Amino acid sequence: MKRRVVITGLGVAAPNAIGIDKFEKALRNGVSGIKFHQVLKDLNFSCQIGGKPPVNQEIVDQYFTPLQQKGLNSSGLLYGVIAGVDAWKDAMLPVSSEEGPDWNSGIIFGTGILGVDKFREAIHLIDAGKTRRLGSTSVIQTMASGISAYLGGMLGCGNQVTTNSSACTTGTEAIIMGYDRILSGKAERMLVGSCSDDGPYVWGGFDAMRILPGNYNNNPEAASRPMSATATGFVPGSGAGALVLESLESALARGAIIYAEVLGGAVNSGGQRSGGSMTAANNDAVQRCITDALNSSGIEPNKIDYINGHLTATTRDATEIKNWTTALGRSGKDFPIINSLKGMTGHCLSASGSIESVATILQIKNQFVFENMNCEDTHAEIAGLISPQSIPKQTIETEINIAAKASFGFGDVNAVTIFKRYNN
Amino acid sequence: MTNQDIIAKIKTIVTPYTQRREGLLEFNESTNFLNDLEINSANLVDVVLDVEDEFDIEIDNNSMEGMMTVGDARDIILKKLNT
Predict the structure, then answer these.
(1) How close, in Å, is residue A104 to chain B by CA atoms?
(2) What is the pLDDT of residue B65?
(3) Which of A66, A132, A135 sits opposite B16 (nearest CB)?
(4) For A249, phi and psi rounded to 5 degrees?
(5) What confidence tier does A244 reach under pLDDT thresholds 50, 70, 90?
(6) Nearest Cβ partner of B16 from A67, A132, A137?
(7) Average pLDDT over residues A71-97
(8) Partner of A2 at 20 to 30 A CA spacing, among A208, A257, A263, A277?
(9) Does A137 lie at the interface with B, CB-CB under 8 angstroms?
(10) What was the pLDDT predicted at A310?
């Protein structure tokens, strides 16, 4: 019999809130985490706004020892540790003792790039001929797997501990990878998630591509406008999201609180063919990924109650909606409810899939759908495809039994997961 | 700077890296960084950098290799301060 995989812990460090309780409040109340950043203006960025989790020293002290804080200059690592440790504690899982690790618990925690600010520090020292001044902290904060390595040591996980990377699909992909590992019987518990660095050295490349909005610097909270007629690009964000995935047997045996079930998922690539490119999705691949995710879950398209879209606030939003209507064979009033977290947080890049999955799970658990922020002027092409009722402008209480979460990324890569409400 | 001053400053520097806190109670020139204080060997390079900053000296790789105890560190510091 196929093993069942459930979610027993959540953690999040998002631009609009840190911690699950605060995050759910922020979702319900439509709280924006987008702010103006003087440093971006000073550096002549076109887009001078972005989303950063509101971390302060008090929070840092809760997760890092004074020694770990020495020379700590890696924002993604910081957010990833907060979310990952929180998810583990939320699942009420113990930290392994010094005697040995928990061989049945692993970590797949992705990132796009790690420790950019730390790397910049190193580059300046190296170019000045002072390589020896780097000390011991440069490598561990800038290796991509630094985030899974830090979490692995803090929690004492003895199963696979690794970092995946697939641009903006990273977080959703990590969930599917962890799910597969439990499904195949190779692990009982997997901490999965992703993080993203922030600041000018991460966001600069996107600014140069002119895909960020430059006309909302005086009105940051209105800038991120998924599915809106006046969307002019995605607002860069950052942060981390984390989920504890667990075999149903393990969760039941230890009496864990179950948030929801992972029914299945799919990842694929459009091969940068048939209209796909390094930066644009092959629509056939997107539709196929949705269909494959449904098939792997044993779910008919008409069972989907809610979709958490990728929907970044670019001209591609209408294309995404078109792909959903085609893949599900549902449109107009028959289309599921859909929303995008990016209206509140911006596009958290490699962290987006995991942060948005945490938001999806919270909505399933507590039976609500958060508002689509800044979408009062729905894009005409989208309005022509699906009913206004499918795009709530206010937070609503509604029944969600099955939800789909999609993420698409540079490199023409896709990931879709299907979550189901868990009834005790 | 007296011998005791230097040892006191070394103690302050290594305290955050020390994993075996008891080692700090009987801190003297024979205290071994790895065995008595259980400092992670990767952190020894950070201890050296902190010593360099505190005393405004430079400790080359060869000198660092012989720096196993508090006494070794004091000797290297004294030597560098007097050259």
Answers:
(1) 27
(2) 85
(3) A66
(4) -60, -50
(5) very high
(6) A67
(7) 97
(8) A257
(9) yes
(10) 98
Do the Cβ atoms of B49 and A133 come within 8 Å?
A: yes
Q: Give CA–CA dist A417/A407, Å, rounded.
A: 9
Encoded tokens for A348: 């958290």
Could you write out the DSSP letters of every residue in A158-170? Answer: -S-EE---BTBTH
Q: What is the ipTM of this complex?
A: 0.88
Ranges in chain B, pLDDT < 50: none
Sequence-separated (6 or more) residues with CB below 8 Å from residue A1: none
Nearest CA in chain A to B48: A135
Q: What is the pLDDT of residue A40?
A: 98
Range of the domain at B51: 3-81
Report in angstroms the alpha-carbon separations of A120 from A72, A123, A299: 13, 5, 47
Q: Where are the domains of chain A?
A: 5-260, 265-421
pLDDT of residue A270: 98
In angstroms, what CA-CA distances link A139 with A124, A143, A145, A329, B15? 15, 6, 10, 49, 23
Q: How far apart are CA A78 and CA A61, in angstroms?
A: 11
Q: How far is CA A227 from CA A93, A171, A329, B40, in A?
A: 39, 22, 20, 52
What mean pLDDT is reported for chain A?
97
What's the token pair of residue A169?
């699909």
The partner residue sitting opposite B42, judged by closest CB among A66, A132, A136, is A136
Could you say which residues from 29 to 48 on chain B have a Cβ atom under 8 Å away from some Cβ of chain A?
42-43, 45-46
Amino acid at A48: Q
- Please name the fold of domain A265-421: Peroxisomal Thiolase; Chain A, domain 1 (3.40.47)
In the structure encoding, which two tokens stand for residue A225, read together? 């406008």
Do A5-260 and A265-421 agree at the fold level? yes
Question: Is B16 near chain A, with CB under 8 Å?
Answer: yes
Nearest-neighbour CA in chain B from A390: distance (Å)? 55
Give per-residue pLDDT as tens, A91-125: 999 998 888 999 999 999 999 999 999 999 999 99
The secondary structure element, H or E, covering residue A105 is: strand A105-111
Q: The CATH number of the domain where B26 resides is what?
A: 1.10.1200.10
Each residue's pLDDT tens digit, A347-372: 999 999 999 999 999 999 999 999 99
A136 inside 8 A of chain B by CB: yes
pLDDT tier for residue A229 given thresholds of 50, 70 and 90: very high
pTM for this entry: 0.96
Chain A hits for B15, Cβ within 8 Å? none
CA distance A237 to A34: 8
What is the domain count for chain B?
A: 1
B17 to chain A, any CB pair closer than 8 A? The answer is yes
A424 pLDDT higher than 80: no
Q: Which CATH entry fits the domain spanning A5-260: 3.40.50.1820, 3.30.70.20, 3.40.47.10, 3.40.50.1980?
A: 3.40.47.10
